[in-house]
UniProtKB/TrEMBL annotation, chain A:
This is Syntaxin-18. It comes from the Eukaryota. Residues 167-208 have a biased composition (Basic and acidic residues). Residues 4-96 form the SNARE-complex protein Syntaxin-18 N-terminal domain.
Automatic annotation (TrEMBL), chain B:
Pfam families: Sec1. It comes from Enhydra lutris kenyoni (northern sea otter). Plays a role in SNARE-pin assembly and Golgi-to-ER retrograde transport via its interaction with COG4. Involved in vesicular transport between the endoplasmic reticulum and the Golgi. This is Sec1 family domain-containing protein 1. PANTHER family: VESICLE PROTEIN SORTING-ASSOCIATED. The lineage of its organism: Eukaryota, Metazoa, Chordata, Craniata, Vertebrata. GO terms for cellular component: Golgi cisterna membrane.
Amino acid sequence: MAVDITLLFRASVKTVKTRNKALGVAVGGGVDGSRDELFRRSPRPKGDFSSRAREVISHIGKLRDFLLEHRKDYINAYSHVMSEYGRMTDTERDQIDQDAQTFMRTCSEAIQQLRTQAHKEIHSQQVKEHRSVVLDFIEDYLKRVCKLYSEQRAIRVKRVVDKKRLSKLEPEPNTKTRESMSSEKGSRHPSQESEEKPATEEYPEKVPAESQPELGTWGEGKGDDELSPEEIQMFEQENQRLIGEMNSLFDEVRQIEGRVVEISRLQEIFTEKVLQQEAEIDSIHQLVVGATENIKEGNEDIREVSTLGPPRSPQCGTTSGQQPSSCWHGCLSALLGPNPQGSPDGTTQSHLHPHQTLGPHYCQET
Amino acid sequence: MAAAAAASIRERQTVALKRMLNFNVPHVKNSTGEPVWKVLIYDRFGQDIISPLLSVKELRDMGITLHLLLHSDRDPIPDVPAVYFVMPTEENIDRMCQDLRNQLYESYYLNFISAISRSKLEDIANAALAASAVTQVAKVFDQYLNFITLEDDMFVLCNQNKELVSYRAINRPDITDTEMETVMDTIVDSLFCFFVTLGAVPIIRCSRGTAAEMVAVKLDKKLRENLRDARNSLFTGDTLGAGQFSFQRPLLVLVDRNIDLATPLHHTWTYQALVHDVLDFHLNRVNLEESSGVENSPAGARPKRKNKKSYDLTPVDKFWQKHKGSPFPEVAESVQQELESYRAQEDEVKRLKSIMGLEGEDEGAISMLSDNTAKLTSAVSSLPELLEKKRLIDLHTNVATAVLEHIKARKLDVYFEYEEKIMSKTTLDKSLLDIISDPDAGTPEDKMRLFLIYYISAQQAPSEADLEQYKKALTDAGCNLNPLQYIKQWKAFAKMASAPTSYGNTTTKPMGLLSRVMNTGSQFVMEGVKNLVLKQQNLPVTRILDNLMEMKSNPETDDYRYFDPKMLRGNDSSVPRNKNPFQEGKQGKHILYGCSELFNATQFIKQLSQLGQK
């Protein structure tokens, strides 16, 4: 359990101050220590970088607050029906979407700019590393906030797709049978979380277009009140069949929905991975290009050496013939010298694998 | 808070560190929180404490952009708060004052690993005043974290300064009183920090007349003083709620290494113990040298490069957790099994790929996709897991191979079996002399260890003639006889003739000569290596602990002193890691192990040798 000794420290400061005064020792500025500190600090360059970084963070924060604020309204699904509760029209939602997207784009551009700038300025290695990590943090923050946005957008899109499907099931007018009319009535009850009645066109109706009353739970018979028993039976059977078929279709559609969602998720994951790999592939590309260059140079050097011919005699190397041996040295060093920057897997020493822990070998490098 | 009582020491220390890194405010995860960044500065002590507990990624998650050694060249980084985690020594304080003067960072959060003295605090205050940086020093804390937790319930007191508290340092004949005091103070400080973190006041027991007693006396005094001052006591507070009023207080048994010198020398057969004994294993990190194969190098080409690899064996590593106490052959088998199951999963994923490829063009085959989409999703989401598994398998394959090489080269299985027999007094089938003179079996150090165990556990010292014979054989084998000198002295001095000899009844049954050649693709060909089965051991320390906890009457422990700091009015044992897994000992009792210094047999022999020289 840690003990907070900050107060103790402040007390020590006071003690030291009084002691120094008693001893007559000048303490940087004397009594007005605090004012002096302010003076000390203002000429210190506030640091473009950090102030801009904080700006970006506050922007992202604003975006986040904005999204959270309107989230409830945004998601509210039935606003087109219960218009007195929902306060958002589709156009408003579109507006939000667009704003959010432009905002995110500007933020990520700002981060990129900061990054390039940070690298250009001449600073120590430590400061550079610190800044790049800070930028990583900011990017991560942006990603998290974007996730908020994409989540709610996904919900909205799903709802839109649902609605579209529902609206596709508008029955065709007049040439339909009782069944289609009753299903029409069914779809006109929006309060019913109505299951999709798939296109009733699929039922080339063998049902005689008689103006017979419907024995459905919601239909009112419009026609005559007489129904022959066979017809009743037929209608019943038809009903059963239709219900069965609709249920199975309904199940299938649900399944497809689920799959589509999964596919979209996979899509996301794949995109991410591809983007990650892009960076790595780029670096590999660089390395390969570098290696090819080196090999080319090496080959040329070898060619040079071979045209020069073998060294004349052993003693020449030690006494007068300095040239051939130095030429050999030169070639050998050319062969052994250039190494691709960094290790073959593209990592340099300052990049730490997440599974590493602090260790003596790391610190010796700093 | 009820969970706090059951939290392992590792969790407690990790939570304390995280709180410190969060500017001394309890850490709460917030997914849409703004990023805060900071710099961590530590000294070598801090580094040793943090590295087994937090990985670099976890540090990043806490917002740490850079972590630097205190005594390194550090550049000023503007607008960044710095968290310091250092010991309050003279040089550290000086360097911190220098940092303040150089205005390296924007604000300073100073955390001292163990309590800082008033005068040193004033030194810092002085420097802060001179640099006009007093308001920049945001917080100052005493963390009381001066111990290193290596596992859920095992800790070590010292690592950087273990020379100071080593067996050799305490037992050398020319130690002065002041030096002894320093050693004791260091140990007591660490133990005190341990109990503060644990949040409980122990009852202390130790044997008389040993260094352990000195430690116990000092620790008792320190705890008492702290409890007396009720307002500032470290043992009252909300985090301690559960522990405070529980009926069970922990029992601290302080044991001196001298009661049992044979166990550290003993050859081992379990995975973790072997790694510690045979490889360079330090603070949960093992360093391997892999020779990159024999390259037929033509004249004048580059030398064979040996890759140095180091691996961290952490509690996250499930394989390690499961198998660190298993006998080695079992480990080899398990690695094989893991590898096979991994390959099966990999194949599954690859198969999906081909299926998807086929179905891709067929639009009407929506129904066929049903299963596969779900499978694909689960395959993709399990990919990171799979990769992690692969990494662990590679790691353990390399480590186990390295260990196996040592076992085969030095015939460690033979040593293990033989020593077990010696320690349990069963009849020996081969004479000791044979093994010592055998040029194939083991390094000179192995032979020395074997002989010392024999010597220590013998009821009567071997006759002069025998001894001479042994000595000659040992010298022929290339051993240095200094450790033997020391052990002779120790034995004469110890007068505890009865205790060390009874190592309990241990039997190891060799399951026949293991001539299993594992199936193709296996790298673990353990021909000729015996498959030894481990039985429960009853080592002296275990026995003592058992007696004390159960309040059994036993001549050995009846004489132990009793301290209770709470009453108004009292691991200094360097426990080697080559011991069998200790958790199985007791049902229902939770045992934490700690030692002042963690060494393996090689290091111990070195210390004995140095002692023998004097």
